[in-house]
Amino acid sequence: MTKKQRYEFVLDWFEHHMPEAETELLYDNAFQLLVAVILSAQCTDKRVNMTTPFIFARYPDAPALAKATFDELFPIIKSISYPNNKTKHLIGMAQMLMERFGGEVPHTVEELVQLPGVGRKTANVITSVIDAQPNMAVDTHVFRVSARIGLTTNAKTVLQAEQQLIKSIPKEKIHITHHWLILHGRYTCVARKPKCEICGLTQACKYYKTMND
């Protein structure tokens, strides 16, 4: 199977079996999504979703969050991983939104990465989720799954993986492929022992072929 055929098989399978894939983070607008994605770094979406309702109730928008103090916000997110840094990042992010962006979340990667707590991966998530921009956020799931299947080859960094994926995925499908790969990695192609027995991608998967040759 060529790489082109592999991509076609994988994307076709996802399209037929997971047509409605989307983020599992709960949010109502771009500001809430940005808060949730910042909190989700090295933390489960489930834990984030348990915490964000309390944040949004108290700080519904950038103007409110920009006025928060560390001592006010920290107790709300202390169950999240790295609460010290994330408390500082959230407040700093809201303050920069007020100072540079009129209190609104910008919709370009170049602008988003200026915000505290926002790296390229987070910016790619925001832009691909909010308005389906063709940006590929590579987290640990995407990195692992794309390498196992053979969608990426010898990618040493998340940026290399991102570049390889974007090059081979049709532009209009990049935003949803991000969710397909994350969800597949979260529930099927798990880190320690992938559930190959229930996976529909084994026909195209290099890992499966290697393990069963």
UniProtKB/TrEMBL annotation:
Give the catalysed reaction(s), semicolon-separated.
2'-deoxyribonucleotide-(2'-deoxyribose 5'-phosphate)-2'-deoxyribonucleotide-DNA = a 3'-end 2'-deoxyribonucleotide-(2,3-dehydro-2,3-deoxyribose 5'-phosphate)-DNA + a 5'-end 5'-phospho-2'-deoxyribonucleoside-DNA + H(+)
What is the free-text note on the cofactor? Binds 1 [4Fe-4S] cluster.
Q: What does the record give as EC number?
A: 4.2.99.18
**Any one GO molecular function term:** endonuclease activity
Q: Which residues form the HhH-GPD domain?
A: 39-187
The enzyme's main class, written as a single word, is lyase
Domain of life where this protein originates:
Bacteria
Q: Which residues bind [4Fe-4S] cluster?
A: C189, C196, C199, C205
Which keywords label this protein?
A: 4Fe-4S, DNA damage, DNA repair, DNA-binding, Endonuclease, Glycosidase, Hydrolase, Iron, Iron-sulfur, Lyase, Metal-binding, Nuclease
Cofactors that this protein relies on: [4Fe-4S] cluster
User: Record's InterPro entries?
Assistant: DNA_glycosylase (IPR011257), Endonuclease-III-like_CS2 (IPR004036), Endonuclease3_FeS-loop_motif (IPR003651), Endouclease-III_FeS-bd_BS (IPR004035), HhH-GPD_domain (IPR003265), HhH_base_excis_C (IPR023170), HhH_motif (IPR000445), Nth (IPR005759)
Task: Return the HAMAP family for the record.
Answer: Nth
The family this protein is said to belong to? Belongs to the Nth/MutY family.
What the protein does comes down to: DNA repair enzyme that has both DNA N-glycosylase activity and AP-lyase activity. The DNA N-glycosylase activity releases various damaged pyrimidines from DNA by cleaving the N-glycosidic bond, leaving an AP (apurinic/apyrimidinic) site. The AP-lyase activity cleaves the phosphodiester bond 3' to the AP site by a beta-elimination, leaving a 3'-terminal unsaturated sugar and a product with a terminal 5'-phosphate.
Q: Which PANTHER family match?
A: A/G-SPECIFIC ADENINE GLYCOSYLASE/ENDONUCLEASE III, ENDONUCLEASE III
User: What is the recorded name of this protein?
Assistant: Endonuclease III
Origin species, per record, is Rurimicrobium arvi
Query: Which gene codes for it?
Result: nth
